[in-house]
Amino acid sequence: MTAIPDHGRRIVAAVDPGARALGIRPGMTITKARSFAPELQVVDAEPEADLEGLRRLALWAGARYSPVVAPDAPDGLWIDVTGCASLFSTERALLKDLHRRVAGFGLSVQIAVADTAGCAHAVARHVPAGRPVTILPGDHRKAIALLPISALRLAPAGVEGLRKLGFERIEQLIGSPRGPIAKRFGRDLHRRLDQALGFLPEPIEPIFPEALPQTRRGFMEPIATPEAFARVIRDLANDIVGQLAGLGKGARGLDCYFHRVDGHVQAIRVGTATPARDPLHLAKLLSAKIDTIEPGLGIEAMTLVTPLVEAMKPAQGESLESLRSTGPDLAALIDALANRFGHRNLRRAVPRASAMPERSVSSVPALGQPEGANWHDDLPRPSRMLARPEPIDVIALLPDEAPRLFIWRGKRHRVTQGDGPERLHGEWWRERGAEGELPLTVRDYYQVETETGGRYWLFRLGDGEHASTGTMRWFIHGAFA
Amino acid sequence: MHEPQVLADLRARIARIEGAGARYKAIPFGLDALDSRLPGGGIATGALHEIAGSPDLADDASATIFLAGILARVAGPVFWCLRWRDLFAPALDLAGLHPDRVIHVEAGSDANVLLAMEECLRNPGLAGVVGEITKYSTTASKRLQLAAEGSGVPAFVFRRASKPEQMLEGTAAMTRWRITAVPSEDLGIPSLGRPRWRAALERVRGGNPHSWIVEGCDATGRIALPAALVDRPAAAEDRQIAA
To answer: Given a cut of 50, is residue A453 above it in pLDDT?
Structure first.
């Protein structure tokens, strides 16, 4: 439990779950709290240090999840995850990652996602689910209707007054006439209500580290066209590249903030595969995402920040000869593709030591990974491999020969020639591999050619002697050239 | 002027008007039988080519290696834009296309594959750009053709599980190939010989369709003509196609 001084007495600032279970709440006097539990440990609160910690947490979340992050003192964090889920494939994955990591810092955390900031704020503080809560788009009204009045971020006196009038839950407030209530409790009440319901905008003013290269342009007249944005982005990119050059660094990521006239801030985030300092390239990456910005009534200022800088790789003589020998600007192309399709969808294949063919290839990022891996293995391998071996029905004459006929996806394939078997042993040190195979799996692979000339890769599970090696079923795993 | 010279001159002029292979070199197969029927003497760079197998997976697999063989003989990185994850890299290596050179772009849908291809095609110096799709429009093919002409990079649209009747659709592609497996030579022992394909050139700008039986790629990506067929008169081949 922590305590802060208040008008000559000391009151409770924050409590841990144990104290909360005893009925101690923030706002009580220490004397009253001690009457619940005399052995209470009281620590002086450090609001400045807490605020600084919150700020650091916000900067961390800003680098990892979304460009638009702001601390919400004393104990909250705003994160605008609009359009940021693609980095984690789904919003759910993003929330899970956020929850896991913040909990890993030793903080108790409650996460809520909703259409409006007010709704997310209310749900996060009043629905102790213990896991991220997502309010589906359009459901925010339903979600906050059931919550208590105090969820609206009002002054404690107002909440008390409303309670005396019989208002307990927000739905009562939504349904009652506004005039009389506003007269007594002020306009703030309905402003908070409208923000939670999405009738009033609630801008999040993002924070970012001041030390980073950044540049800002304000406009006399708000701008709203993609062409104008592209122009400003070019100017901003030129400025930022000047700053980066002074530092001897290159940008690995860029955030461009669009400040709308109604105070709303939207952002574009792009990343690069290698430190970049070419204004044209950076501007092109940003411009490709302009269509995600909703200009509304106009943008009055734009800020470009580089949250991630790295020392430039020493460019050895950017002369014409070296350009010619290094070939095309792969890094620029890969950045352009990655910002559209995601870095994880740009891969290169590398061999991996594994007996099972489906595990013998792993993929690595397209750039910056060691090359020259030796694939040379003259065993035949199919050019198209099924993600999962599919069971087939076969007619085989002899147990150790390729089948004479197999039926796959309802089609009969008569086999004219075959080669094999190539015996592959499962990796006994793995508990369970793909398709739940047994640890002692044995596969006998056969290459067969059908009467039309098509070549397929079939295998039989098991060695025919030990039941633990497989069931003797036949599968198809791919097709050859 | 001698008559053959006039003809050659006219052909060159027509080729220039059609924009076919006039500005960039072609990638030869190294087989006279094929190269002589292709304008520029091979697979033209800076142009769009269509390659298809059939709904049979084995034919798509053959077409994959046919394509890998072409790309294996050009220097530079290859961008392979995918919708499906069934491309198996070790087989590319066996055809001479080292997987280090191949960057897989998992674009997810036909529309995204086309977008990714266009983006890649704007960069000169690539060995080639491959896109695996099921369907695309004539307009999309024109866009790719123009992008390829601009940079000199060969573009290959690989139509997966393509049915023969789809080949009647219009296209701006320079060539259109259909690769299907045919029975290989029976070695008489329980082993498989070199694979054989029917490489059907179904459409070629500034040339006539033709079809060959070829043997699959060796470790350097070269296809070959089967020994027994090398001496067969071309006329017989033509009759077979006409039939």
So the answer is: yes
